[in-house]
From TrEMBL:
Secretion signal span: none
UniProt-listed InterPro entries: AMP-bd_C, AMP-bd_C_sf, AMP-binding_CS, AMP-dep_synth/lig_dom, ANL_N_sf
GO terms assigned for molecular function: ligase activity
Limits of the AMP-binding enzyme C-terminal domain: 451-528
Domain AMP-dependent synthetase/ligase: 20-400
Highest taxon of source: Eukaryota
Family classification: Belongs to the ATP-dependent AMP-binding enzyme family.
Organism, as annotated: Escallonia rubra
Pathway: Phytoalexin biosynthesis; 3,4',5-trihydroxystilbene biosynthesis; 3,4',5-trihydroxystilbene from trans-4-coumarate: step 1/2
Keyword line: Ligase, Phenylpropanoid metabolism
Full protein name: 4-coumarate--CoA ligase
BP terms from Gene Ontology: phenylpropanoid metabolic process
Length: 549
């Protein structure tokens, strides 16, 4: 057969923005967003996004410039995920749990030209703005107000989100990407201030990932989706765009609260929701937890949920699916694909199988566990450990302004190296056994132990410091610091002193919940701190007391 060449008819750039355009036609009269007393249809959401995109463009925002959003799960947050790229810009969602110092660093690193901030977080953003160097150009600020709780607009803000919507052109011709490789999102993997890693994903990658997640999770048309997962977490694992693709109803919760979540599930007949294992734990132990009237599908990721928790969730009527992914791979790319024969197994065995991460999703070309030195596949025996690697169309374009880190992650052999350690079982199912040495996952948030250690080292009494994960009843893991003190200090700090010192310098979720003072940290023959020894000590300390701070 002669080799046929592509034509303009099949070279149209893929972009998830077309999901919204289609939903306005197919599901135009159906509910798109629900928040308190506010309800929109898909045709209204499409029109509002066009008007908002028009106003963003009128502010002088040009193609591929970064526009940031600091907001909880409110309708404006959802609309901006479409409106910003419709104006040709790149959307940058900022973790609302970060401190002002970190937010300032990320905004400057991404060179954000425009920032939308929820009124509840305006003081935090203004503090971040005050940390800009005098000669740095500050972004334009727009305030997201709330129904029934809208503060007056100060001189620091150009306008409100709603004002931009109302003043925009509903006939605006939105900016299609020039190529499907054009950047769509910029998401930061952590709040590190020394070397922030800004993950850049393309229109093509997000398009593929969003549809892939829907297929893998078997999401039907017009589901009722409860936003218990923060939209700023890797773009809500791409279900922001996924819900538009299937005409779902987005039930927005600005803050996760178990009683409120249960009330929303019953009121709106919720069918789907996502969250870290800590969300499952909060739901299972809530005072008003009782068997659901109808099954609710819940997708969880991060650290593996314990088997006992999965059993409790099943008893309540939740259908739990466990997946695995990274910000760098655009969402869930490994899931525990369920086999019908497993339904005949005892409940404890079913729960054990569900704790495994599973197999690659359809759109991920390949996933493997390899020897980190030889780059060869490890034995499929469920015992031999190696590094988890990925290959596929959902892989990030790279880290913004960091070619060295990009090259260290995406090797010349064409694989993305996750830094996570796992095993491959004989049946081809993947299971994580450990994480990269610097990462602690607490309540679904990634904490860099190196960053916490860097703060501890600034204390005048600290000689050496190392931070590892300690099991926690509420957060699954919390940072545990091991500290040796200098010999000539005037006053010996207490555990409380060290925690308060960190609290003044770090986002609260990154602050160690436990500080252990030791004479000397264990080291290898070459002088490196043996973190695996410290992890064993932390595990031996048992589960830390429940803390929601």
């Amino acid at each position: 057969m002669d080799l046929l060449k592509p034509s303009p008819a099949n070279l149209c750039p893929l972009t998830p923005i077309t999901f919204l355009e289609r939903s306005a036609t197919v599901y135009g009269d159906c509910t798109s967003l629900v928040y308190n007393s506010t309800t929109y249809t898909w045709s209204e959401t499409y029109r509002r996004c066009l008007q908002l995109a028009s106003s963003i463009a009128s502010l002088g925002i040009t193609r591929l410039q970064v526009v940031s959003v600091l907001a909880p799960n409110v309708p404006a947050m959802y609309e901006l995920q479409f409106a910003i790229p419709m104006a040709g810009a790149v959307v940058n969602n900022i973790n609302t749990r970060l401190d002002a110092r970190t937010i300032s660093v990320l905004l400057r690193h991404g060179e954000s030209k425009l920032v939308f901030v929820d009124f509840r977080l305006r003081s935090l953003l203004l503090e971040a703005m005050s940390l800009y160097p005098p000669d740095d150009r500050r972004p334009i600020l727009v305030l997201i107000t709330d129904d029934g709780a809208s503060p007056s607009l100060s001189a620091r803000f150009h306008a409100t989100h709603e004002e931009l919507v109302k003043s925009g052109d509903p006939g605006f011709e939105w900016a299609h990407p020039k190529t499907e490789w054009d950047p769509l999102t910029l998401n930061y993997t952590s709040g590190t201030t020394s070397s922030p890693k800004g993950v850049v994903h393309s229109h093509r990658g997000v398009f593929i990932s969003a549809l892939d997640s829907l297929i893998d999770w078997s999401v039907p048309k017009q589901p009722i989706f409860l936003w218990t997962l923060p939209m700023f977490h890797s773009s809500g694992w791409n279900f922001i765009w996924g819900m538009a693709a299937v005409g779902g109803t987005n039930i927005c919760l600005p803050k996760f609260d178990p009683p409120v979540a249960y009330a929303a599930i019953e009121k709106h007949n919720v069918t789907h929701m996502c969250g870290a294992p800590v969300v499952l734990n909060m739901l299972s132990t809530a005072p008003n937890a009782k068997p659901l009237k109808n099954p609710v599908h819940i997708l969880t990721g991060g650290s593996p949920p314990p088997a006992g928790l999965l059993l409790r969730m099943e008893e309540l009527g939740f259908v739990v699916t466990h997946g695995y992914g990274l910000t760098e791979v655009g969402g869930m790319v490994v899931s525990c694909a369920w086999k019908s024969k497993w339904n005949k197994l005892p409940a404890t065995e079913r729960a054990r199988l569900k704790t495994r991460q599973g197999v690659r999703t359809l759109a991920m070309t390949d996933v493997d566990v390899v020897d980190p030195v030889l780059s060869l596949s490890v034995k499929r025996d469920g015992l031999t450990m190696g590094e988890i690697v990925f290959k596929g169309g959902c892989i990030m374009l790279g880290y913004l302004k960091d070619p060295k880190a990009t090259a260290e992650c995406i090797k010349e052999n064409g694989w993305l190296y996750s830094g996570d350690v796992g095993v491959m079982h004989p049946d081809g199912y993947l299971e994580i056994k450990d994480r990269s040495k610097d990462i602690i996952i607490t309540g679904g948030e990634n904490v860099s132990s190196v960053e916490v250690e860097s703060v501890l080292y600034t204390h005048t009494a600290v000689n050496e410091a190392a931070v590892v994960a300690r099991p926690d009843e509420f957060w699954r893991e919390t940072p545990c610091a091991f500290v040796s003190l200098k010999a000539d200090i005037a006053a010996t700090p207490t555990e409380k002193d060290m925690i308060e010192y960190c609290r003044d310098r770090l986002p609260h979720y990154m602050v160690p919940k436990t500080v252990v003072f030791v004479e000397e940290l264990p080291k290898t023959a070459t002088g490196k701190i043996q973190k695996f020894s410290l992890r064993k000590i932390a595990e031996g300390m048992g589960v830390s007391p429940v803390s929601r701070l």
